[in-house]
Fold this sequence. Notes:
Layout: H1 2-28, H2 32-53, H3 59-71, H4 73-85, H5 94-117, H6 124-144
Helix pairs in contact: 1-2, 2-3, 2-4, 2-6, 3-6, 5-6
Amino acid sequence: MDRAFRTALCSLIFNAVYGAYNVLFGVLSRSYWLFTVGVYYAILGAVRFAVLRSGKAGRSVARGTGVMLLLLVLPLVGTVVLSVVESRGLELHLIVMLVMAMYAFTKVTLATVNLVKLRKSRLPRLVALKNISLADALVSMFSLQ
């Protein structure tokens, strides 16, 4: 269990750096999409931090995490609607796209490995961290689209 929390702490740091990266390039390129994805990762990092700090809380951790993950969909839906209404695609520099692709495939791989390793775990904190990791991976693939 201690190893899972160390991995979650590394993911928290990785999320913070990637979120800051997206916010920075979102501001520099005036891209609502990158800015929103950066804010999403900042909030996701805050949820992951709350789960890590929660101690031995039970179902309330898993329930609170689920509610936050559902609420985090709203900013992404707003960004997609904004992109469709403005009828513009997202054109980014090759380096930015390569970083996003590396991040997405790394997160999908790690989330899949964690999903398999922790599939039988019933500890609410581990289940919450696994769900956060999976949501992180799916949104990174979505943002890569």
